[in-house]
Predict the structure.
Amino acid sequence: MKIFDIPGFPNPLRVRIVLAEKSLADRVTFVKVDLPAAEHKQPAFLAINPTGTVPVLQLDDGTYISECTAITEYLDHLDGNPVLTGRTPREKGVIHMMQKRAESELIDAVGIYFHHATPGLGAALQPYKSPDWSGRVEWGNRQREKAEAGMRYFNAVLSEQAYVAGDAFSMADITVWAGLLFAGFAEIPVPAECGHLMAWRAKMDARPSVSHPA
């Protein structure tokens, strides 16, 4: 298998943590994609993933799977022991619900703020940001507020349970952790009142798959 990504970036890290959790890193070859140079927006990469985003998983039969949730589903089921995406119908339902919230209310909101209300990754990507849209920065700033509200939401969730989707670590935890990492890149501080979220993050930082991803 191959994974097209860039080391250290939030969404690629989500899949690299999955690989570490599942002990699959030795089955994957990584292909670096130069995001600051807008390589992911060029025809060669768009032929692999029309949405122009990383990571992308290429299977040995040539199939391409993009989107972190879909890649996680595939990797989690390779050994017949899905521990990150749920075993029972209830677990699957709750994990996927919280996964969606982690994306829409945190990591995606941070991404929109970073790419539209700040210089983002630099000049090469400016042509892909609708630069003539006068409301772009205002929209980005509203997404920052959404991300801050998302942090408060997950703080409340984690005040009542050990992990984002309940009593066990799941892909929803990986996504919230990556959202907080991205927020740090974008200089969005975690609200001071989010003590439960910060305590959970410290626990995540100490997890072997997070401290030493693939």
About this structure: The chain is about 50% helix and 5% strand.
